[in-house]
Amino acid sequence: QVQLVESGGGLVQPGGSLRLSCAASGSISGISIMAWYRQAPGKPRDVVASITRRGTTNYADSVKGRFTISRDSAKNTVYLQMNSLRPEDTAVYYCNSQPGNTWGQGTQVTVSS
Predict the structure, then answer these.
(1) Can you give the pLDDT at residue 87?
(2) What are the CB-based long-range contacts (under 8 Å, 24+) for 55-61?
(3) What is the model's pLDDT at position 18?
């Protein structure tokens, strides 16, 4: 079984940056894909970015060129570097691992002046 713990959320002004972290523990050797999702109030949970075991990355169109997903295998941690943040990026951000569809507890990101 995999456990995921997110950190790094907070309040930031428009145009600012944040880096989210997702630390994985447990049976991590079977993880094939790690992804970040976000959910704004009243909206569905949508994928933001993903990274495969081989390092292949994918991004939602709304964050391409602004967000970067990466990983540190030695630390069993996946990161989401978020630059040029906009108010519409405000949401709870969740880490997910596949297979198994494991979720972290989420971390709030608020972009506001």
Answers:
(1) 97
(2) none
(3) 98
